[in-house]
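May I ask you for just one protein sequence along with its backbone structure tokens in two labelled lines?

_____
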Amino acid sequence: MCATCPALLLCGLYATEVRPSSGIWAGRTPVQVAQLDRFVDLSQQVA
């Protein structure tokens, strides 16, 4: 369902800002959102 949602990108960006504790955000669980957020933070520090 999320793969075809027109708000997928915005939803994912929102989730990385808000860090939800429940639900599905851009096709990811809150744990996966937190892991993605850590990856993005690390890549920005290296670049």
Observations:
- The chain has one domain: 2-46.
